[in-house]
Amino acid sequence: MISIFTNSDFWERLSAIFSALWSFWAVWLPLLLGIVFYEIWMRYSRILYVSKLDPILIEIKIPKEILKSPAAMEVFFTALYQPFSGTYTSVFFKGATRVWFSFEIVSIGGDVKFYIWLPRGWKNYVESQLYSQYPNVELYEREDYTMNFHFDPEVNDINGGQLTLTKPDPYPIKTYIDYGLDKDPKEEFKIDPMTPLIEYLGSLKPEEQAWIQIMIQAHKEEKALEGRIFKKKEMWKKEAHGEIKKIIKDSIFTPEKNPVTGEKPMSFMGISPAEKDVIQAIERSISKRAFDTMIRVIYAAPKGIFFVGGAPSLVSTFGHFGSQTLNGFKKSWGPTYDYSWQDFKRRRSTMHKKQLLSAYKQRSFFNAPFKNFHGKPFILTSEELATIFHFPGEVSKTPTFERILSKKSEAPANLPI
User: Could you tell me the end-to-end alpha-carbon distance of the chain, in angstroms, rounded to an integer?
Assistant: First the structure.
């Protein structure tokens, strides 16, 4: 290896390459500067655009009786599919981008609440779509609960990170349809995968906090200027069809599936019932609206009662949305430090926690300043989103889960004047 650098021919060839490149500087230098300018300008204009959104936080108060299945929430999420970014002028010169929303489930000392974070300009539309499916809910604009928490390593501690999928995007998670909730069963027969999550949040001590943030943005498989330059390519659906072909191919050319008995249950075309269910689940998934998604969790508490397993326990409640044959969620914390010399006096981990908290407070992931913070967005459909964020019925008996005690009704028409 050293002989290469001591060889005079090597340096002569290297010098010739640089000379050739420099002779064409009038071609590549303007192109390089143009790309750099484009990236800097788009970042600046996007930050300026985001800073003017005037976001608000809406609390959703849920009635005691929820008689609708999560299918109603799926209809609501489908209405939020807004792929339009803007015109050439608004995208390039004003930094316009697709609208994004944050759906949050929060426990402050065991008091469980549902929130929606959104730009103020979308308030009327979002509220009307939610009321159309759940006319008995009550919506209130609230102050941001995150502003009351300030991370101080001497006083309190936080832990958390982001979730990612265990398999490629085309594989769906186990949805409410798989749990039979699309059939509106009676409360005593319901098996709601959100119940363990709500129960855990309701079990927190008075000074503990747990936050769950589900950020979504309409999925568009397009490039540059929000798809205005290059032709749209349905890569996600193409990948899904590729996975289906792979399952069929493996089923046909791999006769032995059971490593113990060497037997393989056969069905039509040699596809096992389990494989057939996976194919049907993928086909049903790609027929729904798709959203770029990011899920972020944070557990916080004073140092005296801080539980190291708080955030991992929160993540484990998402296990009910996964299965061995379909998709699921797993933790993706970001940087980890196994040795003390990697993180002297825990400065790097403290910096990471501050960044995580700041990204959560700003609801930033799809755009600067925390664009693709510790990972890239994954895809969930409206059906999957309705599974991980819907209003549980009376099957959830958490005492700290506040509900509206009375139903809304109009006054009788025959009241005396």
Answer: 99
**Single-letter code of the amino acid located at 336:** T
Q: Give the distance between the most distant pair of CA atoms in the chain.
A: 106
Domain boundaries, the chain: 28-404
Q: Rounded to an integer, what is the distance from CA 239 to the centroid of its chain?
A: 20
* Residues in a beta bridge with 156: 302
Burial class (CB within 10 angstroms; exposed 0-12, middle 13-18, buried 19+) of 279: middle
Partners of residue 392 on adjacent β-strands: none
pTM greater than 0.70 (yes/no): yes
- As a whole number of angstroms, the distance between CA 226 and CA 85 comes to 7
pLDDT of residue 275: 86
Residue-wise pLDDT tens digits, 201-247: 999 999 999 999 999 999 986 554 454 444 445 578 888 989 888 88
Q: Are 146 and 361 in contact (CB under 8 A)?
A: yes
Instruction: Give the Cα separation of 8 and 103 in Å (integer).
Output: 63
Distance CA 167, CA 380 (A): 12
Cβ-contact 351, 337 below 8 angstroms: no
What average pLDDT does range 342-352 have in this prediction?
Answer: 77
CB 332 within 8 A of CB 162: yes
How far apart are alpha carbons 334 and 351 in whole angstroms? 12
What tens digit of pLDDT does each residue of 354-408 get? 999 999 999 999 988 888 888 889 999 999 999 999 998 765 555 566 666 655 5
